[in-house]
Known about the structure:
The protein has helices at about 50-55, 65-70, 75-90, and strands at about 10-15, 20-25, 25-30, 45-50. It is an alpha+beta fold and about 100 residues long.
Amino acid sequence: MALWSSRNRTETVTCLACGVDVARSDAREYDKHGDRWDRDDKTFEHLCKSCHGDLCHQPRDGLEDLLVDLEAGEADQVTFLGRYLSTVEERYGRLEEGQD
C-alpha cells in the first residue's frame, strides 16, 4: 500500500447551505469563526462552489456570536428572523432601503 493512497480517495461532503453532497475537491471550506487559516484542532464545514459564490464575502465581525446569542437553529425560521431583525436594529440602528 502506498504511503499517499488516502489522498487519492474521493471523499464527499455535504454543502451546509443547500444540502447537496459533493466531492470534497469540488467544495469550499467554511470556517464559522472566519479564520480558515488557523487549522489547529479545527473541523471545517463545506459549501458547494455555487453556494460559496453566492456568499457575501464582506467582513462579518460579531455575526457568529450574534447567531449563538439568538440561538440560531433552535427556533422556527419566522421566530428567529424576528429576533434577528429586532436585535440588529437595536444594536446598529434601522437600516433604510437603498443605504450603502
